[in-house]
Structure formats: C-alpha cells, structure tokens
Amino acid sequence: MKPSHYNYHPTFPLVFAILLAFSAASTAVAQPHDQFLQSSIRILRFDTETTPKPLVIVTPLLASHIQATILCSKRHGLQIRIRSGGHDSEGLSYVSQVPFVLVDLVNLRSIDVDVESRVAWVQSGATVGELYYRIYEKTRTLAFPAGSCPTIGIGGHLSGGGYGVFHRKYGLAADNVIDAHVIDANGRILDRKSMGEDLFWAIRGGGGGSFGIVLDWKIKLVPVPPTVTGFSVTKTLEQNATQLIHQWQYIAHRLPKDLFFLVTISRANETVQATFSGLYLSLVDELIPLMETRFPELGLTKQDCTETSWILVMYMSQFPNNTLESLLNRTAANKTWFKIKSDYVKEPIPESVFAEIWPRYFNEDEGRYGSIVLVPYGGEMEEIPETQTPFPHRAGNMYKIIYTIGREEEENLDFQRYLSWIRRFYEDMTPYVSKSPREAYVNYRDLDLGMNNGSGITSYAEASIWGLKYFKNNFRRLVQVKTLVDPQNFFKHEQSIPSLSSW
Ligand code: FDA
C-alpha cells in the first residue's frame, strides 16, 4: 500500500491480452464464476437468471491490472462496473443494461493500522468488519466511525459518506479520510496531492462509480474508551411505544455527542414494537442518571445495559455464539430481496403519524417484512459545514428515516407487492419530511428518485432530479469536478454524476 505498490507492473500486457481476447469474442459471453459472483451479491433481486451478467469479471491483484482493464474497456467501448462489497441497494456495482466488465476488488483488501500515528491505510476491497477487526486486534482504544453492517465494502461505503454509532461524535467515515489513491479514466494513479483538492473532495461522499476507481484510503482513527455501554429497550404499542417515539424526536439529536441512540420499528406478532438502542462512550453509572434527566419516560435501567468494548456492543447481538472472527467473513449471512429508501426530518413528526399511519402499514401483510429505523443526527453532524464534503445533510436535520423491506428467498415470490408497500409508505410520509429538495442518502441508492438517460448523455437539469436530493447544492460542484476529470463520462451508471462535456 505504499505509493510504490501502485507503479506499473509487468503483468499489465498479459491482463490486457486476456481482456482483448474476451472482448474480441464479444458474441460469446464469458460465463462469470458463479460462486464468486454470488458471494458478493447482497441483494437477491439482482441475483436472478435474467439479471444481465458481465462479459468478464476482473479480480485485480495489483493496481496495474485495473489500469489495464480501464484502458482495454475504453478501447473496446465497454462500460466498467466497480464492486467492493457489493451492497449497492440497486445493484449498480455489478449490473448494467449494456455490455460491461466487472472489476471486483475482493483481492485488494489489505489493512495497515498504525496505532502510534492513529491512522490506517485500507484498501477498497476490505469490508468494514475486516477493518474493525484489524483495528481491535491492535488496540482497544481506537476505532473508526463507519457503518455497522460488517460486510459493507470500504470502497462504496466511504465513497458515499458512511454513518454509524460514532457519527454524532466524530462525523462520517468520509469526514475522516485524509488521503487516497484513485485510478482515473486515463489509467493514472493519483494521490491527494496529484489529484488536487476538488477531486479529493468529490470522492469523499459524492457516491461511488463516478470519478474513478479508489484503490485505498488513508483514514484517521478516533479515540474510544476501552469500556463503553450498550443498551436496548423494547416497547410495544400497548407499552406506550407511540408516545415514546414521538418524544424521542425532541431528545436524541440534542443529547451529548457521546451518546448515540436510535429507534427501530417493526411488527412483532400482532402488534408493532419500537426498540430503543444505543451506545454510550462511557460507563453505565453515568448513562443512567443522564437518561433519567433527559428521557425518564423510557425507564432505562442497569439491566438494559451492558458494559463492554465498542466492537462487542456493535456485534454482540449479531454473533452471540461466534467469536469476533466472524467479522472476517465477507459473505452476508442474511441475503434478501431488498429495497431501501431514506428521508431526513427537520421538524418533529406529529404523534398521529406514529399512532395511525405507521401501525396501518405494519399491519398490512407485507409490513411483516418491513422496518423503519430512526437515526439521530446533531452533535458533530450539526457542526461540520454542509460543503465540507459532498454529503450535505448536516445542520438542521434532527434525524434520518430508513425504510426497508426484505424478503427471504421463496419460489414465485411476488416482490412487486413489497415494492409497492415501501413506495406507498414513502409517499404518505411526504408532508412530514424535508422538502425542496426531499433529501436522501446516496449510500441508500434509490432509482425511484430518478435516473440518468439511457443514451449515456444526461443534462444537468435531468440529473438534478435525483442529484439535488442526494447532494443539495454540492451537486453543481460534483458536476464541475466530473466534467474536469472524466469529460468523456467513462465511469457511469444510472445515477453517476454526469459530465457536461459529454452532451
Ligand atoms: P458496492 O461494491 O456495491 O459499491 C457501491 C457503489 O460504489 C457502486 O456504485 C460502486 O460502483 C461504487 N464503488 C465501489 N467500490 C468503489 C471504488 N473502489 N471506487 C469507486 N467506486 C466504487 N451505510 C451506512 O452509511 N451505514 C450503515 O450502517 C449501512 N448499513 C448497511 C447495511 C446493509 C445490509 C446494506 C445493504 C447497506 C448498508 N449501508 C450502510 C449502505 C452502504 O454504505 C452502501 O450500500 C455502500 O455503497 C456499500 O459499499 P460496498 O462497497 O459494499 O458496495
């Protein structure tokens, strides 16, 4: 991972020749390695017989293999899709409607943790689980503020922001990136200095797949106490869940930065339940009096809390019988047919919404497979300026809503009705969430918000339909950077940043 690692390599011509052979035989579609392809697909709706497959999957071992793939794909007019962890919720990292080459970074996943300098270099193909494991292996008092699902890939995650239990204290994963290596559309390897501050700004939150292939990231590690407190309390509608959720809105974003406290709402048997859970960066004896003062109605007790390390708070419930080595397993255990949508909330939602609309949706048959998560903002998220990175959802946001629906695999599954459920739910929330634009999180990719023109030429106005929702006014700067660094729009997908010189 030293810069020299990324120099030109003698295997370049060999890879180039192999790729040429593939593309020359473009009528004979190369069969992807099924087992491998499966292992990186998190969302089953893109794992069907009719899902378009790549002409070839390249699993580079060296940067030069990526350089060769870019140049070869360009020469043969093929599109490239880039996959790190394969969690893109619309499958944009491995599905394309035009002939394409899949660059899967699974073999580029080394992690180099420097405890003394509190930094790490992590390659894009690593997962956040691998990163957390490698940090924890070396020290109990440093962590990295990123997402909680262990199989998410570093490449896509940091490209779109990356929030988790520490974002109220330390900001997003992308806020803690201090250098990176990117291969651009000309096959050049650039670091922060050589790419310049505009491109370095764009890759930290502007969404993956638009500017180049990020090889690795230099990240700042953040201090954490060796012992923290995790907690979880579940209340049903009959136990006042509605009132508690309504109250939570006024409290969670104003709590001290050391306390992260979210709500997960789902159906439970014949009722609806809300689980209030979180992580406090100190001991239980401090947490209980704090909660008694700020949210006495929840009735948090010591029995609801566990004092342990930050990594166990995050993963204890997921791997109760396993060891932390499970974090090194890249294959997601719970693959489902899945759809996700997101919203931002700036004013408290009236209690009637939680009392009438939400239980109605959860009582529908499809609602058994849905869930809503309310993720608090405030803290550091309030203080980082909206333009510091492309991720614009900062001051003024009380919390984010995540809507999901996920069905396990089943023969003749009619997923359309589950899609309809989540889309109706989202539509009914319109009056209560952010407006002009209705903001959304780019890492919860949602093609319902709009798509680039299939011809490959999309105007600023067309792309603004989805672009302003993800990036607000930062979208304009993202388009400017894209136009400069990839004027021919080589790196593209259904929601990639358009280049103005391509139309
Ligand atoms: P994937 O490989 O599918 O890539 C996503 C996008 O980035 C694609 O457009 C791809 O082309 C591009 N890309 C990938 N690698 C790249 C590279 N090296 N250079 C340039 N572009 C690249 N988010 C969050 O913030 N906090 C969370 O807790 C969670 N939790 C979560 C759980 C589950 C189950 C899912 C499915 C998703 C999340 N997410 C999340 C969302 C997650 O952050 C988002 O899907 C990321 O883009 C996933 O990154 P991957 O590398 O896994 O995706």
TrEMBL record:
Signal peptide span: 1-30
Domain FAD-binding PCMH-type: 50-224
Residue ranges crossing the lipid bilayer per the database entry: none
A Pfam family of this chain: FAD_binding_4
Keywords: FAD, Flavoprotein, Glycoprotein, Nucleotide-binding, Oxidoreductase, Signal
PROSITE patterns per the UniProt record, alphabetical: FAD_PCMH
Cofactor: FAD
InterPro entries (alphabetical): BBE, FAD-bd_PCMH, FAD-bd_PCMH-like_sf, FAD-bd_PCMH_sub1, FAD-bd_PCMH_sub2, Oxid_FAD_bind_N
Top-rank lineage group of the source organism: Eukaryota
Family: Belongs to the oxygen-dependent FAD-linked oxidoreductase family.
Full protein name: FAD-binding PCMH-type domain-containing protein
Species in which this protein is naturally found: Hibiscus sabdariffa (roselle)
